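Sample A.
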Amino acid sequence: MRNRYFFLLFILLFSFSAFAEGGTVLAKKIEHLKYVIHYGFIRGGKASLKLKSERYKGQDIHHLILSGHTTGLTNSLFDVRNTYESFVDKESLLPIKAIRDIKEGNYKRYNELVFDREKNKVYSKRSGEHDVVKGVHDILSAFYFARIKLFNSDLVIGQNLKIDTYFADEPFLLQFKFMGYETINSKIGKIKCYKFIPVVETGRAFKNQDDMHIWISADENKVPVRVQFDLFIGSLRCDLVNFPHMTVDPNDL
């Protein structure tokens, strides 16, 4: 359970919009989104998602690489260096493999998951074999799936979206509620957005179940524009600082 909702901070930011419409990738391009994280008026971190189109064990896949790290004063206090990867089959939109590599101060955790779709099992490098429900996702691929299949103009205010995932070496039901539309003044202009509230656990980091808000652009890109947390320790806000579908230098990967 440790760090689950802080990880959602990064996941909710990046996994929607690093894909061209319909889940395909523009030829010879690498998608790269960048965000900055603020704690109050202090710039506290950076995060990014890189997407590659690859072949993995004979399958065409999307390879998602999500990374986040603290900066400045926040880094001297917490020193976070997290990387997550998901290998997603282009046809089924289901993950084949997932990697979680966490470094937060003295806390370190590395794990790999391999999904067996025929047997409905997941193989964890840390804990062995586990039975899972059919169509289970890792949490990064779950938001990719939501972006492609669930976020659209058919959403009804108050609607709850649910996806079965396997995260932190246990089953986890990912849930979030659609709250309607809102226009956000962002660094790249005014953007009409879908507004979501993830269902979170109170008493750990959050006071109330509606203490986390996410704004996703209500256009074909479905770009996460802003994520805001109201925590016991204060408020965290994450903002988009570039636009999707930009080509980056492969040497930066």
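Sample B, a different protein:
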Amino acid sequence: MTALGRQLKLLEERAKAKVPGLDRVEAIREANKRLSENQRLQATTVSQWFAKDRVPKDFPPLWELVKVLLEMTEGEKEQPWWNARRASWHELWEEAARHRSPKEPAPSNPPVISLPAEAEGFVGRERAVGKVLAALDERRTVVLTGMPGVGKTALALRVAHEALRSGRFPGGALFADLDGYAAAPGSALEGLLWPLGVCDLPSGEAARAATFRSTLAERSDALLIVVDNVASAAALESLLTGLGDHRVTCASRRTPSRPAA
């Protein structure tokens, strides 16, 4: 652990002693009120600052979190030594960044997997599985269409499990079911954000979609997202990643009315 991480843990412990029941998510939520949208903190990222050798890319988001904890600890929002405190934390941040070897890439996130099990008795569709895998190599989104009962979901899950076995998606695979066309995309996003470690869920579909994209942007290893029972392109849009090497496979009774990728 870096000196920065140790000091963060000590500060958090002092804040918890002053504010019984305080958790890190609450402190992050307060810090995010002061940050612009592109600087917002995620619980998983902040936890890596505390526990690993990860170093914040920029100082301002780190300082806003530190300020929240300092305010909880000291009991005042304005202190005569505020600038001195900021300077000392800036030094800790610079030291941590300086001592992380540039030859060593930041450690990868552990894979996240929330897939249902493969359907039993799924045989004789190796060609279909191969075609979908090949399509995922070329496109961000692959749509499987067909009448109810033809095996769209079983095919999507077989493809996902086979892709994991072959190492195509080292970041893992997530599953969202739009629940027979009844579930709102915001609910599906909640089921995708929890496995990614996002505990402080924003309200509203647009805010959750933005959080989903920003969380995926922090993950360097490719993820596959499987979405079942998609009624329309509109229902799928907020679940699309549009980022890096992440991919989406969806199952629908018909091709979405407007392009989904």
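Observation for Sample B: Residues 82-99 form the longest helix (18 residues).
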